[in-house]
Amino acid sequence: MAKNILIICAHDDDGNISMGGSILKYIDEGYSIIQVIFSTGEMSHPHLRKSVISKTRKKETEEIAKKIGIKKLIYFNLPDTQVKENIDSNIKDKLRKIIQTYKPNKIFTVSIKDTHPDHRAVHKAVIEVVNQLKTHYPIYTFQIWNIFSRNLPLLQIDISDYFEEKIRIMKMHRSQWVSIYLQLLPVYIRARLNGLKYHCKYAEVFYKLK
């Protein structure tokens, strides 16, 4: 039976920032990673042409996927900062078919508590689609900009053997160097504090919704 992990993000760097260590660990454990990306984040450099940023970000993400062994990248190509306004029935049908095709062992997506509106919009779409399916799929959320904990069941993953590689992968999003470097210290602090709490060097923590 196939072992699939489905990661559903608003932007291409969301997964690597929030769960890059877990992605590496799951791949080593024989899981196939399928990543759905709603927007290419073309507004991250408003002074440059959107098509150039979109192409650059996709190229970087494809390089990372090839390097670490992600099985599939699926883009919805929705406008950056306007994901909520562009999630229609067609997008939800696409997401439903992806879930039904890959039958993931776990689904990871962004938190409803995240500060970015695109992240919250993706979260709501994922929950709506999964709630309509007859098959039960475990759903876990990850946090990117939000730093506050939630009173929900937790999944803790020891990423001690993968943390340094996670940082190298984050830096491969070269076009996003400002936001990536802003995240390096928070990512380190979270991983270290989680590790101390769960008796390892570094850990990533996810909240279980279903």
Summarize the structure in words.
The protein is 46% helix and 17% strand. It has seven helices and seven strands. The longest helix is centred in the C-terminal third of the chain and has 21 residues, at 177-197.
CATH topology: Rossmann fold
Largest sheet: 7 strands, mixed
Mean pLDDT: 92
What is the string of SSEs from the N terminus onward?
Answer: EHEHEHHEHEEHHE
The structural domain count equals 1
N-end to C-end Cα span: 22 Å
Sum this structure up briefly:
With 210 residues, this protein is α/β, with parallel strands linked by helices.
SSE topology:
Elements: E1 4-9, H1 14-28, E2 32-37, H2 50-68, E3 72-75, H3 83-86, H4 89-102, E4 106-110, H5 117-131, E5 139-142, E6 154-158, H6 163-171, H7 177-197, E7 203-208
Parallel strand pairs: 1-2, 1-4, 2-3, 4-5
Antiparallel strand pairs: 5-7, 6-7
Helix pairs in contact: 1-6, 4-5, 6-7
Defining traits:
210 residues, alpha/beta, Rossmann fold, seven-stranded mixed beta sheet
